[in-house]
Amino acid sequence: MTTEDTLLGGRVRLRQPASGLRAGHDAVLLAASIPAKPGQAVLEAGCGTGAVFLCLMARIPGLRVTAIERDPTLAALARENAALNGWADQVTVLEADITDPALRPRLPACAHAFANPPYWPAGTPPPEALRANATHAEETPLAAWTTLLAHRLARLGSLTLILPAARLSDGIAALTAARCGSHTLLPLWPRPGQPAKRILLGGRHHGRSPARILPGLALHDGDGTAEAVLRRGAGLGL
């Protein structure tokens, strides 16, 4: 069973499974952080139902999207959602596992790459199979995601991840393994003065600039900054 929901204050329509892991703030925040320009090619790994690339396309016109999803049900929904929002001709969804060597020759060159990868190594997964696939990494290390994303990434193209704050060290190591330097960190705080639970972490392919820590975003800040991102599609400038 699926439901039809909206993101970005109704600008994006999204059909997704009624149970399991459902699109929310993480998808919108990741999309807001990607520094793409109109007409560029972008790549997403583990796209699920397409929430991230759809929010990105709502903010930046004319993008050409290649998205990878191994689950047939979710891949079909991602294609359906691209059509539902009028972008079917700009989106290619590849049904594949990121560890499959046959995938890399199918990837086009891209200016930006991004993912909301599984949060944790294999352990005790949640009960729903789709939720387990989305949040638990099984035997696939984070570096497998970043090296796949960087395979056809342009020099100085961006690679962006959203991760639990506890995986900051893993994220930096995975970006480095993919030859992505110039690291940029944006903490996501539940409220001002509280520790970050999520982070946005970016790098540039073959980048050599010093690392940067940007002013973080409080998701419940009261001053309208988070609301502008989550409901009106403002960018974060990572």
Descriptive report:
Helices cover 26% and strands 29% of the residues. The chain has 238 residues and is an alpha/beta fold. It has a single domain, classed as Rossmann fold (3-Layer(aba) Sandwich). Strands 3, 4, 5, 6, 7, 8, 9, 10 and 11 form a nine-stranded mixed beta sheet that branches. Strand 4 (64-69), helix 3 and strand 5 (91-95) form a beta-alpha-beta unit. Helix 1 (25-33) packs across helix 2 (51-59) and helix 5 (142-149) crosses helix 6. The longest helix is centred in the N-terminal third of the chain and has 13 residues, at 72-84. The N and C termini lie far apart (36 Å). The model has no long low-confidence stretch (mean pLDDT 92).
**Helical percent range?**
25-40%
Shape: globular
Please report the distance between the alpha carbons of the first and last residues. Answer: 36 Å
Helix-strand string: EEHEHEHEEHHEHEEEEH
Number of continuous helical runs: 7
Total separate domains: 1
Question: Judging by the overall fold, what is the CATH architecture?
Answer: 3-Layer(aba) Sandwich
Quote the CATH topology: Rossmann fold
SS elements, strand count: 11
- Sketch the major β-sheet: 9 strands, mixed
- In round numbers, the mean pLDDT is 92
CATH superfamily: Vaccinia Virus protein VP39
Q: What's the CATH C level? A: Alpha Beta
Beta-strand fraction estimate? 25-35%
- The rounded Rg comes to 16 Å
Q: Are there runs of 5+ residues with pLDDT below 50, and where?
A: none
Class from secondary-structure proportions: alpha/beta
